[in-house]
Amino acid sequence: MAGNPIEYQMPGGSSGRKRWSQPLMSLLAWLMVSGLTTSLGLSRNAQADYAIYQIPGTDAGLLLEGETNYNPGGTVTFRHPRGSLYFNARDLQVIQTPTRQTIFKRKSGKILSEKTVENYIKLAQWALQHGMLKECKSLLSDAWKLDPTDEKIKKLASLMVHINRPVPNNSASEAHVRDLIGGSRMEMSRSKHFALFHDPQSEKDAVTKMTRAEMRLELLEKVYESYFLTFALRGFYLRPPNEPLNAVLFSEHKDFLLMERRLEMGLKQIAGFYLPEENVSFFYDSGTTEVFLYLKQLTDKLDEMKEQAKRTRSPNAAHIIRFANTVSLLIDIEHESEDVATVSHEAVHQLAANTGLFPRDGVFIRWVHEGLASYFESSKLAVWSGVGVVDQNRISYYRALEGDPVRGSVEFIVSDLGFIVETALGDQLPAYGQAWALTHYLFTERFDELIRFYGKSRKIPVDTPPKEKGMELVELFNECFGDRVTLELEWRRYMRTLRTDMEQLAEEL
């Protein structure tokens, strides 16, 4: 198939399975031996309890967020919308910190002490970066009410009108996708801006009361709005598509792999991909991979133990029931986290190709595409967590190459040699980490120059050989950003200020 499929490999391993399976399998093995249980949770209205749990015998750790209740006997209960979780108090280091909502209210009081359009926009940008899309839009609405004549807010209001307007169905596009996937039996569900092709579904999530297809469409719309607003709040307005963006969600991993083989793409161990030529994104339910199926067998055995404990009225029945429920919930959260990360990543590839940022028929620059998609990627706590999340695995790959004078240099990344070399070495993820890190800095600190570089790079002929393309990219980069040595020093200093949530909390201990 012609064109460059834009694939997504989960951060932290050479495939989606390896990203999380080793830490989680280590955790579950420890659970089976010791009876300890852990989980992720949600926060209280004003105060959140964060806990750092280092999985015994591994380098992996879990950041736990939720409401902690200490019980007699040295146990702790974590409250989660899917149930209560239990563990021994001695196994966690708990830090009390304000919730995101509480921090938002404090910032609101400080920033909006003087109510100006600029201050409303400043606070809206903070809210958007932290996954508070609803609050962001509300602030923009308040800014428009404050001064509807302000030029910047007029442009933002016009954008909101466009992105809130549903695009009409496209029968030709639907027929094309069905022909591509051989999916005459697949259903098509619509949201404002996406057409999602999926296997028939009737089972609904216990918490959201939605099918998995409905949950994916909701996430796609959040990414859609966040994508446009992230650029617009920095003064750059992208063109919204006028037809639905097509995506395919397979219920079974094996069907996804069969589709990949049918397209003869030669991709390996991927969690999702976007085909620019066909303008279709492909995902699957990560809960159907071999690892998750194995974990399902484990939870089935735990359920059997639970039922047996009930029947025999075992004195440890309550503990066994809590233990089984906790393991099941932990797997469920990881399942959703993987899906959220993959969908948000590929959705940005598709949006960039359909909004004029990186045209579908333009030159393919791997670090540019993957850097931006990774910058928007969300994989925290199984929800849409905002833009520019500092992912542990991405930043770890950056740090591993920070001191490498060749593989860690700006020139090496910008020339797009990173993905070629790392692929030859057997693992592309260091290149993902470098692309993410450079994009994170440029997007945050040098946005105008980055947009100018994006524009100039689009003029490189599609058929330019890799060596010549690399030289031209470096030349354009120097033209847009100036002294590369100074930029690299600034980039290094910037990256040393970034911390994952777990690192920030660890510093408070």
Automatic annotation (TrEMBL):
Highest taxon of the lineage: Bacteria
Domain DUF1570: 339-463
UniProt cross-references to InterPro entries, sorted A to Z: DUF1570
Protein name, entry field: DUF1570 domain-containing protein
Species this chain originates from: Rhodopirellula baltica (strain DSM 10527 / NCIMB 13988 / SH1)
